[in-house]
Write a structure and sequence with these properties.
Blueprint: E1 3-4, E2 11-12, E3 15-21, E4 24-26, E5 34-35, E6 47-53, H1 63-71, H2 74-77, E7 80-86, H3 92-100, E8 106-108, H4 111-120, E9 124-131, E10 135-140, E11 155-158, H5 164-174, E12 184-187, H6 192-200, E13 206-210, H7 211-219, E14 224-226, E15 239-244, H8 245-250, H9 252-271, H10 273-283, H11 294-311, H12 327-339, H13 356-362, H14 368-376
Parallel strand pairs: 6-7, 6-8, 11-12, 11-13
Antiparallel strand pairs: 1-5, 2-3, 3-4, 3-7, 8-15, 9-15, 10-13, 10-14
Helix pairs in contact: 1-9, 1-10, 4-5, 7-11, 9-10, 9-13, 9-14, 10-11
């Protein structure tokens, strides 16, 4: 059935948010009045879930786990009333600290930040891995840094010092013999256009960022590439969905329904990245890349979504299901962090990760109906 959409801006404590409610949605975007979203009309009850993204705003990179399940009603179909908020900064520690206060039930931070946080405070556990190869060091093709070893004495741009992304890049450099104190970290929070200009003008020599950043540099006419590093990106997934211990222990059925909605969202976005892109731009037109016309903007946006979808598939996919990776890979990925003193030497997987609920959901999940929906869905046009 169709539902009516109502749109308005809402802020809470400086956070940008959208609210998915029974029978409709309210959000940061300024989309149209019609929707194909599902409904909670057949639900005996509706459960509230508060959801935080470690980001300045809801971006194109989150289509699989935010915009698509929101717009297509996958949350509503699971009898969920989901509030999605961006933490306001690209800083996972802020999102995790907000979860510690009990403000949020689930969130998407960097895995490194989650492991470090869980090593100090038993508050959250990873319940789904959202990305596998999306963090890296980006450099101009003709710049002075062409390997992590070249970072000694150089300037590395970061969104902010101490983030999980920055830790990842510093660890990549450490494994090539460069200590963190040999690198000058330069925070840049004014957008990727400013980062591209800083790289072009040599104010920074490298950028510690994510897959969509590399696409943005290409879109901005800056020839660049991601460095190969010894910190194997397949070992420790850069992105993860986490849930509070309270959510896992006291509301496991609600969390399983939430995870099922995410599996639906990812399945749709993988099957139809162009339609997922159209959905994201409908909900959040402010995420549209700068371009001379809408057609060119859509092409740039699609490149970002395609890159993220490629990086959302776990090693061994489809034999390895979405959201999973092997214990062996995670253990090997944690070893360098133990050696660097970033996490306790005795930390175990059970201290920060619990995929048991995802396993319950995944074994009964049938992607075929969602893939058929992706084939027949009439996406918004641009």
């Amino acid at each position: 059935m169709t539902v009516t959409r109502r749109w308005r801006w809402r802020t809470a404590g400086g956070l940008i948010c959208l609210v998915l409610v029974a029978g409709g949605a309210m959000g940061c975007g300024k989309g149209g009045a019609d929707s194909t979203a599902g409904s909670t009309a057949n639900c005996k009850s509706v459960d509230k879930v508060n959801y935080v993204l470690a980001a300045a705003s809801v971006t194109l990179g989150s289509v699989g786990y935010a915009q698509v399940p929101q717009e297509l009603g996958f949350f509503a179909e699971e009898c969920l009333d989901v509030t999605i908020q961006a933490s306001g900064q690209t800083n996972s520690e802020i999102a995790l600290a907000q979860m510690e206060t009990g403000r949020f039930d689930v969130g998407v931070p960097a895995t490194l930040s989650q492991v470090v946080f869980a090593g100090k405070k038993p508050v959250t556990k990873s319940v789904f891995f959202t990305a596998f190869t999306n963090i890296g060091l980006y450099v101009p093709d003709n710049g002075p840094v062409q390997s992590p070893a070249d970072l000694a004495g150089k300037r590395m741009g970061v969104t902010s010092i101490g983030t999980g992304t920055a830790i990842y890049c510093l660890e990549s450099a450490r494994l090539d013999g460069v200590a963190a104190n040999q690198i000058e970290q330069v925070p840049i929070n004014s957008g990727l256009a400013a980062v591209a200009e800083a790289l072009r003008s040599k104010k920074i020599d490298s950028w510690c960022g994510i897959d969509s950043d590399g696409i943005a540099f290409t879109n901005a006419g800056l020839p660049s590439h991601r460095l190969d590093t010894k910190f194997d990106k397949d070992l420790l997934p850069p992105g993860t969905l986490v849930a509070t211990h309270k959510m896992i222990q006291e509301r496991p059925d609600v969390l399983k329904r939430f995870l099922r909605a995410l599996l639906k969202g990812y399945t749709f976005a993988l099957a139809a990245p162009d339609k997922a892109t159209a959905i994201a731009l409908k909900l959040y037109p402010e995420s549209k890349p700068a371009a001379d016309n809408d057609q060119e903007a859509f092409k740039k946006a699609l490149a970002i979504v395609q890159e993220r979808m490629k990086n959302s598939r776990p090693p061994g996919y489809p034999q390895t299901s979405l959201g999973f990776t092997s214990d062996d890979a995670l253990n090997r990925g944690i070893e360098p962090l133990k050696a660097a003193g970033l996490v306790p030497g005795n930390i175990t997987l059970d201290a920060w990760r619990d995929l048991s609920l995802l396993n319950d959901v995944a074994k009964d999940f049938d992607p075929a109906p969602i893939e058929e929906l992706a084939r027949t869905y009439k996406a918004p046009s641009f």
